[in-house]
Amino acid sequence: MIKRPIIIDTDPGIDDAVALAIALFNETLDVRLITTVNGNVSLDKVTYNMLRLMKFFDKHVPVAKGASTPLIVEPVDASDIHGETGMDGYEFEEPDEGMLLDDHAVIAMYKEIMNSEQKITLVPIGPLTNIALLFRMYPEVKDKIEEIILMGGSTSRGNASVMAEFNIYADPEAAKIVFSSGVPIVMAGLDVGLKALVYPEDSEILKDMNDTGHMIYHLFKKYRGGSFNKGLKMYDSCAVAYLLQPDLFETVDTFVDVELNGELTKGTTVVDLKGYLKKASNVKVCIDVDADRFKQWLMENLKKCK
Ligand code: RIB
Ligand code: CA
Question: In order of start, what are the domains of the chain with their CATH numbers?
Answer without folding.
Answer: 4-302 (3.90.245.10)
